[in-house]
Design brief:
about 70 residues, mainly alpha, 3 helices, about 80% helix
Length: about 70
């Protein structure tokens, strides 16, 4: 069961990464942000740099995602 949890986490990370890249987030930031988002860690456990990367990635995704909506 533990291995299926890791597989699920890896799949979620891939989905987040691909979605972020699709909407214009750089690959490097998308990888970092996806790993953090998929982990579900609270902000208290993240460094200021990690928080900034995730916020930037989510903001860019949000702006670009709204442009593609009908």
């Amino acid at each position: 069961m533990l291995s299926s949890f890791f597989t699920l986490a890896e799949e979620r990370e891939k989905i987040f990464r691909n979605e972020l890249i699709q909407y214009g987030v750089s690959s490097k930031k998308a990888v970092i942000a996806a790993k953090i988002i998929a982990s579900g860690q609270s902000d208290e456990l993240l460094s200021q740099e990690e928080i900034r990367i995730v916020k930037d990635a989510r903001q860019k995704w949000s702006v670009r995602n709204k442009r593609y909506k009908p």
